[in-house]
Amino acid sequence: MKVYINGTIHDGQDAKISVLDHGLLYGDGVFEGIRFYRSRVFKLVEHIDRLYESAHTLLLAMPMAKPEMIDAAVRTVAAHGKADGYIRLIVTRGIGKLGLNPHNCTEPQVIIIVDSIALYPPELYETGLEVITIATRRNVAEAINPRIKSLNYLNNVLAKIEALNAGYEEALMLNADGYVAEATGDNVFILKRGVLKTPSIDCGILEGITRAAVIGLARERAIAVAETLLTRHDLYTADECFLTGTAAEIIPVIKIDGRTIGSGKPGPTTLELIKGFRKLTDVDGVEVRPRSG
Ligand code: PMP
């Protein structure tokens, strides 16, 4: 593991931050999870754009411009030295006094962790995942908008705990109105009579970058896409279902709350989109070249 902290790249065990960082004290900060495949950082520009948008709404003044941030991420991946892996890019409000006031913080801290990641066991991509819907609702946009990828992930952590307590790896969260929102760290799609459907952004979800890539892949294949309201009944009666996310990529879902989805096996459209996504990760992305320093 390599960790960039404010311009210096450390080995994992030497990377340290202050206990007075407001990212730790209050979850005051933003982050991104990014993948690199065969020395190409997938959708790096899109992730950096979302990071800066999250920070903008939190009035967190980024300490560097986007090209410098991209360079810092690429440099950390190069120092890590492996062709495939995961980047966790974090910008905290910085070191401050005890007390919420963000104005007491001196300067935002940029932390970039580069390591390997495997979210689900590989066999689940073949067999498909069984999930449940849970009682924990997705945050309402009027409180912490789910579109902001902030360090406040307790809503999702509680949802994950609820899933794990029930014996499931993953769960689907509804929004406060009872419509389907998303999984704890992934977006959700269903296929129904040839139409690919996913909750619209105003359902209160993170605007996933994998979600956008999958919508693009579907349109290229002339598959109709609807960003819409979905109920649990829509999920149960879907022909196919899958989750999307940077870490999870595209993972088929074959059972929801005990209801079998379609044939109970990953469906043909899901498999076609997985194939298309794999191809995309081979060609798309910002290239990492080995460098000294
Ligand atoms: N929803 C939530 C709540 C997430 O945290 C994530 C990212 N892990 C996603 C959806 C998927 O977003 P992306 O495809 O940009 O990784």
What does it look like?
The protein has 293 residues and is an alpha+beta fold. The protein has 8 helices and 16 strands. Helices cover 29% and strands 28% of the residues. The longest helix has 16 residues, at 268-283. The model has no long low-confidence stretch (mean pLDDT 96).
In short:
By secondary structure, the chain is of the alpha+beta class.
Order of helices and strands: EEHEEHHEEHEHEEEEHEHEEEHE
- The CATH architecture designation of the largest domain is Alpha-Beta Barrel
CATH topology of the largest domain: D-amino Acid Aminotransferase, Chain A, domain 2
| Gross morphology | globular
Classify the secondary structure makeup into a structural class.
alpha+beta
Total number of helices: 8
Overall mean pLDDT stands at 96
Which cofactors or ions or other ligands sit in this model?
4'-deoxy-4'-aminopyridoxal-5'-phosphate
Low-confidence stretches: none
Q: Termini, distance in Å?
A: 16 Å
Name of the CATH homologous superfamily of the largest domain: D-amino Acid Aminotransferase, subunit A, domain 2
